[in-house]
């Protein structure tokens, strides 16, 4: 395996198989939440094959959700299934499709706030999508590292390689979401990814690929996206590091961690050390970058 994971495009057959798996086959399955409305999945299929534009697909893919709503329903709860489907689709169908889905998510965000006699849905706010993204792809930031547990605590090589691909794909897609549709995910998501370096979490041999993807896609924006004196620390840091630190200090700690991880004395396998070395290069390049950052205007702390 080279320093960077080679993108593996999903075939049309693989994408169709995944869509079929996500489709509820009976009304009972749909009622029990064991699959998506066939019309919703067909809207996704039509968008991917170019039959529907992003704006047309946004209307079609959300229609089954709004039609199924009952009086007094909490839109946050009602939208969970749709957001879960989209959050999974962004990664499960590969980077190429995941990046195409940015157009669909942006189109959903452009939809006007929907107010009916039943309920109100704030589509521009994408209410609940960020929480669903966290549940699907970011829960390994905190708590026991269930993602990397293997039999007797040892991760099989095939699983390790698969996780490296999954985390690289996840990082590429979510960094692009963060750049293009900031309201869709947590404003500090990229910093939480980088902060795994500082917490020295078990599983860094695979998590380093998510870090690599973020730095590759959004390194300069991460460096300049927040005012230097506004970046808050995270609760997972050691006691003497708590409080508010300037970006320069966070960056220095992450850089030192990457120097260590890419060295010969680390416990990481060779390919993970190579990825860590490339992360170090990207981190340094981001810090030196003088380009104007236009995609990300402001983040509230």
Keywords:
single chain, 301 residues, mainly alpha, two-stranded antiparallel ribbon, 2 strands, 1% strand, globular, disordered C terminus
Describe this structure in words.
With 301 residues, this protein is an all-alpha fold. The chain folds into two domains: 12-125; 144-288, no CATH class. It is built from 14 helices and two strands; from the N terminus they run αααααααββααααααα. It has a two-stranded antiparallel sheet with strand order 1-2. Strand 1 (114-115) and strand 2 form a beta hairpin. Helix 4 (54-67) packs across helix 7, helix 9 (157-180) runs parallel beside helix 12 (204-224) and helix 13 (247-261) packs antiparallel against helix 14. The radius of gyration is 20 Å and the shape is globular.
């Amino acid at each position: 395996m080279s320093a960077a994971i080679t993108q593996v495009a999903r075939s049309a057959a693989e994408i169709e198989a995944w869509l079929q798996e996500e489709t509820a086959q009976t009304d009972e399955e749909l009622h029990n939440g064991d699959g998506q409305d066939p019309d919703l999945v067909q809207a996704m299929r039509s968008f991917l094959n170019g039959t529907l534009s992003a704006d047309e697909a946004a209307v079609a893919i959300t229609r089954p959700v709004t039609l199924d709503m009952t009086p007094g329903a909490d839109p946050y709860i009602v939208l969970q299934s749709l957001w879960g489907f989209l959050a999974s689709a962004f990664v499960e169908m590969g980077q190429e499709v995941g990046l195409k889905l940015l157009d669909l998510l942006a189109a959903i965000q452009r939809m006007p706030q929907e107010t009916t006699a039943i309920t109100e849905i704030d589509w521009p706010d994408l209410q609940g999508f960020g929480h669903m993204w966290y549940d699907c792809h970011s829960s390994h930031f905190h708590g026991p590292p269930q993602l990397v547990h293997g039999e007797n605590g040892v991760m099989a090589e095939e699983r390790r390689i698969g996780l490296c691909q999954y985390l690289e794909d996840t990082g590429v897609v979510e960094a692009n979401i963060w750049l293009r549709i900031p309201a869709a995910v947590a404003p500090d998501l990229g910093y939480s990814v980088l902060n795994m370096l500082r917490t020295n979490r078990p599983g860094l041999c695979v998590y380093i690929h998510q870090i690599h993807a973020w730095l590759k896609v959004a390194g300069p924006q991460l460096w300049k996206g927040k005012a230097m004196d506004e970046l808050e620390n995270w609760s997972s840091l050691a006691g003497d590091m708590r409080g508010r630190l300037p970006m320069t200090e966070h960056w220095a700690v992450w850089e030192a961690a990457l120097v260590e991880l890419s060295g010969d004395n680390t416990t990481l396998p060779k390919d993970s050390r190579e990825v860590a070395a490339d992360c170090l290069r990207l981190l340094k390049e981001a810090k030196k970058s003088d380009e104007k950052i236009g995609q990300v205007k402001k983040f509230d702390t």
